[in-house]
Amino acid sequence: MPGRIDKVLTYFPRLATMLTRRAAQLSGGERKMLAMGRVLMLQPALYVLDEPTANLAPAIAMELLHEHVRQLAVDGASVLIVEQRAKAVLGISDHTYVLAGGRLRMQGSPTELASSPDFVDSFLGGGHGNAKFGSP
Questions:
Q1: Which CATH number is 87's domain given?
Q2: Residue 112 domain-assigned?
Q3: In this predicted model, what pLDDT tens digit does every residue of 76-127 receive, in sequence order?
Q4: By CB count within 10 A, which of 3, 76, 85, 107 is most buried?
Q5: Residue 76: CA atoms inside 13 Å, Cβ hemisphere, count?
Q6: What global pTM score does this model have?
Q7: Residue-level pLDDT at 133
């Protein structure tokens, strides 16, 4: 078990300073790190992250995605992320699926989707009004 704790602390070094604190005393971002650390203790082959950046300050959200979530994949795990921050997730993804209205609307590599006018308009703030995702 100590080896797993050490591994978690390599992902989230800031948790090392909080080992004696109760979860109720942690901030929202710290609680999110703790929750992810608890899952890391299990060493799953697949991580399913539902809105991991919700309610986090932009800088902390980017740190979580780019430093911590991406490292899970680098270490060999599969990561499925459901996330509203489309642009941020494209920066760490290998493949992306776009769901709208309960249906698969697009899929592809981040490069393919970023070059799609419909994707840019709908999810990256293109603002051209030509999006086709709203209708079933």
A1: 3.40.50.300
A2: no
A3: 889 999 988 878 888 889 998 988 788 898 899 999 988 888 888 877 765 5
A4: 85
A5: 3
A6: 0.70
A7: 42
The tally of domains found in the chain comes to 1
Query: What is the C-alpha to C-alpha distance for residues 123 and 13, in angstroms, rounded to an integer?
Result: 33
Residue type, 55: N
Range(s) of the domain holding residue 26: 2-94
100, β-bridge pairs: 103
pLDDT at 68 over 70: yes
The dihedral region occupied by 101, where left means phi > 0, alpha psi between -120 and 50, and beta the remainder, is left
Distance CA 61, CA 52 (A): 8
Give bridge partners of residue 50 from the DSSP assignment.
82
* 121 is a domain residue: no
**Average pLDDT in the 3-14 region?**
83
In a domain, 127, yes or no: no
Question: Do the domain assignments include residue 36?
Answer: yes
